[in-house]
């Protein structure tokens, strides 16, 4: 069942979870009692992924309720998504490498019985097959189950990790290019070279509270090997929008709370909500994002007091038509991290420029402040979180 795809529902879910975001989360977060029965975790992932509620809002609310030390585990969990996005922003070639390797693996493996059995939940491994069904029915898996699933896919079923990552992309509502790809790489031993994650039957039985007793799992997890990913780069510099130029706000599904992303002095003439299903990987995500985009468009229109235009494609014709309709010479949009929307915007910019329309992206302070710290592993990144929260006045 797709969760209610509105900001109001996101804030309600956050409020419901807040009392448990401290010690209860730290002690219970690894337990997966089954679909719809896990009270220890927040279930905010779809909302945060599409920014119906932002990471900063979530962390600020948790800090108000608990303070930093008692809620550190949950704050770290929120910041893992920030870390993965920052890491990939600094190494975008890793995303392109993933896509190429996935396509090559599909060409070799397509039609194979082992892949079909895994994707249809017919492996005979009780836990794995149940997670396939849960994922298909709900668009969600507990984070611990995602790790077990990926490990079994790679080391027990011996299927290409890239196809497992693709399976998650096509079914998880909250899948994004960075968190999904890099989490699978971590399990495979590629993200932290030489360090893999092995799913153990006793661990699964314990943390699923006896629901599963998987048999036949791999006893070892040999690390996969690839050419070096290369050193970290720097964030792409952005040209700030000109506040005096008549502008059109473009809302896309990477940030569905655009009203909190833009500078307040932009001369907005209108809002364009462009929901392009082709830029999402799976039906569950499309069912969530479609109405979430409607919710975001209404909020943005009301916040800025401007007319809302809708488009079902993120393409030049729709943007040019919308800009001309409201007399805009500049399109302003929240920054899209590495992935399909970012690629689409990069392709659109020169086409719009030929029509005299500038395309300007605005990166949130949360991202600008934390992404540059994702140059190394998460522990080094984690050491910078408290300082960032203090600098932003959240502590």
What does this structure look like?
The chain is an alpha/beta fold and 395 residues long. It has three domains: 7-89 and 370-391, Serine Threonine Protein Phosphatase 5, Tetratricopeptide repeat (Alpha Horseshoe); 109-207, DNA Cyclobutane Dipyrimidine Photolyase, subunit A, domain 3 (Orthogonal Bundle), CATH 1.10.579.10; 247-362, 3-Layer(aba) Sandwich (Rossmann fold). The protein is built from 18 helices and five strands. It has helices at residues 7-17, 23-28, 45-49, 55-66, 72-89, 93-109, 113-119, 126-138, 143-156, 161-171, 177-188, 201-207, 283-304, 316-326, 340-354, 365-370, 378-382, 385-391, and strands at residues 247-251, 268-274, 307-311, 330-334, 358-362. A five-stranded parallel sheet has the order 3-2-1-4-5, with helices on both faces. β2 (268-274), α13 and β3 (307-311) form a beta-alpha-beta unit. α4 (55-66) packs antiparallel against α5. The longest helix is centred in the last third of the chain and has 22 residues, at 283-304. The two termini are 37 Å apart.
């Amino acid at each position: 069942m797709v969760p209610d795809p509105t900001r109001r529902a996101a804030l309600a879910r956050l409020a419901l979870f807040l009392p448990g975001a401290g010690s209860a989360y730290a002690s219970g977060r690894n337990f997966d009692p089954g679909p719809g029965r896990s009270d220890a975790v927040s279930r905010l992932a779809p909302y945060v992924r599409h920014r119906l509620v932002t990471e900063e809002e979530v962390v600020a609310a948790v800090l108000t309720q608990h303070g930093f030390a008692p809620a550190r585990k949950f704050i770290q969990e929120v910041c893992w998504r920030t870390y993965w996005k920052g890491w990939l922003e600094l190494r975008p070639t890793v995303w392109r490498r993933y896509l190429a390797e996935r396509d090559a693996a599909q060409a070799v493996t397509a039609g194979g019985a082992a892949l079909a059995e895994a994707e249809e939940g017919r492996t005979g491994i009780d836990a794995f097959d149940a997670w396939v069904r849960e994922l298909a029915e709900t668009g969600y898996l507990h984070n611990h189950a995602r790790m077990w699933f990926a490990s079994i896919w790679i080391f027990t079923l011996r299927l290409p990790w890239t196809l497992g990552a693709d399976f998650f992309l096509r079914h998880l509502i909250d899948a994004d290019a960075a968190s999904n790809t890099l989490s699978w790489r971590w399990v495979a031993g590629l993200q932290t070279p030489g360090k893999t994650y092995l799913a153990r039957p006793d661990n699964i039985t314990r943390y699923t509270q006896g629901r599963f007793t998987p048999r036949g799992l791999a006893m070892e997890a040999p690390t996969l090997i690839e050419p070096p990913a290369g050193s970290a780069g720097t964030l792409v510099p952005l040209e700030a929008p000109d506040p005096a130029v008549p502008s059109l706000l473009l809302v896309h599904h990477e940030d569905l709370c655009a009203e909190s992303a833009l500078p307040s002095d932009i001369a907005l003439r209108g809002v364009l909500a462009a929901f392009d299903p082709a830029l999402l990987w799976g039906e569950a995500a499309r069912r969530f994002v479609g109405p979430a985009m409607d919710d975001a468009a209404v909020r943005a229109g009301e916040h800025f007091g401007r007319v809302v235009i809708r488009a079902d494609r993120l393409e030049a014709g729709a943007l040019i038509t919308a800009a001309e309709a409201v007399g805009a010479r500049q399109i302003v949009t929240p920054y899209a991290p590495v992935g399909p929307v970012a690629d689409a915007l990069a392709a659109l910019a020169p086409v719009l420029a030929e029509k005299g329309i500038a395309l300007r992206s605005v990166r949130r302070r949360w991202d600008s402040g934390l992404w540059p710290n994702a140059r190394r592993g998460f522990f080094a990144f984690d050491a910078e979180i408290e300082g960032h929260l203090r600098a932003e006045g959240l502590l």
